[in-house]
Amino acid sequence: MISLTDAQLNAWLISFIWPLTRILGLIMLVPVFGHRSVPKHVKIGLGVFITLIIAPTLPPMPAVGLDSWHGLFILVQQFLIGMAIGFTMRVAFAAVEAAGEIVGLQMGLGFASFFDPQSAGQTLVLAQFFNLLATLLFLAVNAHLLLLGVLADSFRSLPISPQPLSASGFYAVAAYGSTVFSVGLRLALPLIAILLMTNLALGILTRSAPQLNIFAIGFPITLGVGLIALDITLPYFAPQLEQVFQNGLKAGTMVIHALRPGGT
Questions:
Q1: How far apart are CA 245 and CA 146, in angstroms?
Q2: Per residue in 105-120, pLDDT tens?
């Protein structure tokens, strides 16, 4: 007959529950895994599977009861750490979507929108296209595996402990969120330049031939030039998106180091 003491049962539970909480916090926000179309039981199952692989390699857990206030405090901390890591990669995808929004508005496709279940709001078609392109490249370059590697390394860089997290880590997360606009504008800049020259040419044409109905011919010209420019520049998006993913992974590592007690 197998008998377990309360201390042994508590040690087994904390060695599984606390890492699982950090992993589920990441899965909740990270692209692809955290999409609303993925069933909840699949997300939980994936988190349990990853925990079963990572848990045996973790350092010893603090001797804190799971049902104590300190245990609850550690549980909340692990969830926040996982969310911080997942947020950094979510920001990378938000930048790609912002680039699609900017290009779509410049092309005159502001009316072509539909409901996006992930953001629970209206999204431009071109922004959704950029998002799908980024998702395919994210899986093609194995960035999802690299992200899981960053998560596994976080248990060594930022081990589970009852010490409070450093506030500088959360400032780092907020600061990285500001890169959505700069990175999105950088991705959309080639198309913006082409469409700007097109609009300037249409403005000059209107001044030289006022009898032309610019509202009737301007929209199809702008849309056609935008689609042609998108087709030409699309192959050059891959290295740019790959660089965005690499920056997201580096930002996740920086956030982990900044969350250490004392910010060291």
A1: 10
A2: 888 776 666 666 666 5
DSSP classification of residue 161: -
What pTM was estimated for this model as a whole? 0.82
Provide the 8-state DSSP code for 35.
-
What is residue 189's predicted lDDT score, i.e. its pLDDT? 87
Cα(223)–Cα(97) distance, integer angstroms: 19
Which pair of structure tokens corresponds to residue 122? 């209206």
Please name which of 261, 263, 259, 250 lies closest in space to residue 88, comparing C-alpha atoms: 250
Instruction: List Cα–Cα distances, 263 to 171, 178, 188, in angstroms.
Output: 11, 21, 35
All structural domains of the chain with their residue ranges: 6-258
Pair of tokens at residue 129: 């296209």
Note whether 97 and 123 are within 8 A (CB): yes
Residue whose structure tokens are 């959505």: 180
DSSP-assigned letters across all residues of 119-147: TTEEEEHHHHHHHHHHHHHHHHTTHHHHH
DSSP 109: -
199-238 b/e with 16+ CB inside 10 Å = b? eeebeeebeeeeeeeeeeebeebbeebbeebbeeeeeebe
